[in-house]
Amino acid sequence: MTVKGMVQVAGRTYRIIRLMPRLYEAVRILDETSIGYFRCGPELELIPVACHETMLRLVALEAIRKAKTSWVGPLPLFE
Known about the structure:
1 helix
């Protein structure tokens, strides 16, 4: 488990944690709640836990954009 850094989305800060190669957890700093997991591969796979899938997608895309993941390949479209 390695902390890759922080990202900010919609005024909230999230910690990005690498659990395994290409598997990350997003933790909301405000209350230390895991909002879900995402896997970087040929496609972005989302596993929401404590939020809507749309929010987890925004956090994951911001983490990719800010180079907090080991994403290789074309960036997914930002929504």
